[in-house]
């Protein structure tokens, strides 16, 4: 297997540090064609669907893509914004604000960029660009607080596959999870309490996480346990008792059993039990997206109200909230420890001027 051509490099070139904020991905447009292209890449990942490749190929191409693409495109259109996909817009903002905050905290030379596991900008494209810019130390920070083989490990797969054809590989640090990180929990707490300060508090807080097949848990995936811990820590930070919140799992796909309890049936049961108002938050999503804006705030809202529920309140994801940008910075800083600080050209010039002034002052004193 031939290695890819390395970009030009001059000895003495300053190398840099970078952080890649990686999210799941999104179609480029809310059209059937764009959604089909995105779903094909996403659902063809063996980390996402653990079915024998040949069997799954026929199911995916003959049944799922022809019928699901149009339906999914309509859902994406219902949440699409003037600036594009909400997930991409929020992730771009997070990356920009994270870079700004790190600079304010003394990490001026750290470049922060975003990438998508599926769709664009793709991880290979972003990693290639960082190589062109001589970034030789890279922190990969997934937008997934809870580790799962279906998400985080898939990011690792893409990185390893990319660098398998690269001769000069940069130093890499891969952030596995931060489901119990104090700053992540604090950002969630601040998000909930800010919402409650404005809209009042519901009878029950529903914490809805993205689901995965139960079989995945039985085979050793830690995702379920990490979701439960995140929920428990958030509830404790809010001073909530065990009867005041419930953990559910959404986005079930196919006929196999997934992690339970399922979100939609659970909120219907709550309504039938006489719970008048529920507040729903999705702690596993750091950016609002199709699964939160359409599935939760539209479909699940309808299910709750149709079952007799009076008030459904959706609490937005962390997005670009100041508390979350601070949390991201603190998580990133832990993985930058030990790496040399890279100065910008302006800082290096200022440092040189300071040294010259100091030398002149010393010479004058000596005279």
From TrEMBL:
- Reactions listed under catalytic activity: heme b + 2 H(+) = protoporphyrin IX + Fe(2+); Fe-coproporphyrin III + 2 H(+) = coproporphyrin III + Fe(2+)
Its biological function? Answer: Catalyzes the ferrous insertion into protoporphyrin IX.
Q: Kindly state one GO CC term assigned in the UniProt record.
A: cytoplasm
Residues that hold Fe(2+) according to the record: 210, 291
> In which pathway does this enzyme or protein participate?
Porphyrin-containing compound metabolism; protoheme biosynthesis; protoheme from protoporphyrin-IX: step 1/1
One Gene Ontology term of the biological-process aspect is: heme biosynthetic process
Where does this chain mainly localize?
A: cytoplasm
**Iron as a keyword?**
yes
Q: What is its EC number?
A: 4.98.1.1
Origin, by domain of life?
Answer: Bacteria
- Where is it located? Cytoplasm
Descriptive protein name? Ferrochelatase
GO molecular function (one): metal ion binding
Extract the Pfam families matched here.
Ferrochelatase
Query: What is the species listed in this Swiss-Prot or TrEMBL entry?
Result: Massilia yuzhufengensis
Keywords (alphabetical) are: Cytoplasm, Heme biosynthesis, Iron, Lyase, Metal-binding, Porphyrin biosynthesis
Give the family, as the similarity comment puts it.
Answer: Belongs to the ferrochelatase family.
Q: Which InterPro entries match?
A: Ferrochelatase (IPR001015), Ferrochelatase_C (IPR033644), Ferrochelatase_N (IPR033659)
């Amino acid at each position: 297997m031939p290695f890819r051509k390395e970009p030009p490099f001059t000895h003495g070139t300053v190398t840099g540090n970078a952080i890649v904020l990686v999210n799941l991905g999104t179609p480029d447009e809310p059209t059937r064609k764009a959604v089909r292209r995105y779903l094909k890449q996403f659902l063809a990942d063996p980390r996402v669907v653990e079915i024998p490749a040949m069997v799954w190929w026929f199911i995916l191409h003959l049944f799922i893509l022809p019928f699901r693409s149009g339906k999914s495109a309509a859902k994406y259109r219902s949440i699409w914004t003037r600036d594009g996909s909400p997930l991409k817009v929020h992730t771009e903002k997070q990356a920009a604000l994270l870079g700004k905050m790190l600079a304010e905290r003394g990490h001026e030379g750290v470049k922060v960029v975003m990438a998508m596991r599926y769709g664009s900008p793709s991880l290979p494209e972003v990693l290639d660009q960082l190589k062109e810019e001589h970034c030789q130390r890279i922190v990969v920070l997934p937008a997934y607080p809870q580790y799962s083989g279906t998400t985080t490990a898939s990011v690792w797969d893409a990185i390893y596959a990319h660098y398998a054809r690269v001769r000069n590989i940069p130093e890499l640090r891969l952030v596995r999870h931060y489901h119990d990180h104090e700053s992540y929990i604090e950002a969630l707490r601040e998000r909930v309490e800010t919402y409650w300060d404005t809209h009042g508090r519901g009878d029950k807080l529903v914490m809805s996480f993205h689901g995965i097949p139960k079989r995945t848990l039985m085979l050793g995936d830690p995702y379920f346990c990490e979701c439960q811990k995140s929920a428990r820590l958030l509830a404790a930070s809010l001073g909530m008792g065990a009867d005041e919140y419930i953990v559910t799992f959404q986005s079930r796909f196919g006929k196999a059993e997934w992690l339970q309890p399922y979100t939609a049936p659970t909120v219907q049961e709550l309504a039938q039990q006489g719970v008048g108002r529920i507040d729903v938050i999705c702690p596993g999503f750091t950016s609002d997206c199709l699964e939160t804006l359409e599935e939760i705030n539209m479909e699940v809202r309808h299910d709750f109200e149709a079952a007799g529920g009076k008030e459904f309140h959706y609490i937005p994801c962390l997005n670009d909230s100041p508390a979350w940008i601070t949390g991201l910075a603190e998580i990133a800083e832990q993985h930058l420890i030990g790496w040399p600080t890279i100065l910008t050209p302006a800082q290096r010039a200022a440092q040189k001027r300071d040294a010259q002034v100091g030398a002149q002052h010393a010479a004058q004193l000596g005279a």
